Task: structure prediction
Amino acid sequence: MPRLHDPSWLLRLAIASAVMCALGIAWFDLPVARYVATHDTHPTAWSTALVTLEYASGFEPWRWVGTTILVLGVIVSRAMPRWHGAAKAWLFVTLTHFVASNAMIWGKHLTGRVRPSEWHYGTSWWQHGGAFPSGHIALIGSIALPLAILYPRTRSWMFLVIAFTGCARVMASAHWTSDVFGGLVLVALSTWACAVAVQRAPWPSAA
Result:
């Protein structure tokens, strides 16, 4: 049965991502966005490839598909004695996905950052945008990082999935680089907090 391994490396990931996010805001957000806007970066190809991950994470065809499947997984694994050993893992992934998704939505409301494709040479913050933090990183990362905790051997692959997601959104002029790293900070902290909470929570024995 899957078990929760040490999540402490997520704090290092969050710190590194926060540094990159700050550097992006201060220095390389604008040059990267201008390069993407003035060069053929094949945005359609990036977005088309990303659709596979959107369906795999339950983001498409309906944004609540992933959450519904995860909640059902918790209920079924808890109710069925033969799957009880996996119930805590299901709870961990579900809780992380729920926390990261809601934190992301509130982050977008509070920052109001417009996307590079919407920007018109003024301030990009506190407008009516939804760029910061990246929703794709939060939603896909909140599945990928918990899986990296439960199955450490998949960590490199999960990082590859997250990196591809971030690149695809930047190359489509849908996000600034700092949006991607901001989303990674959010999902790393959410995953760490949920891992600690689930590890420490009392768990009743199977009926």
In short: The helical segments are 9-38, 43-56, 65-79, 87-111, 135-150, 155-171, 177-200. The chain has seven helices and no strands.
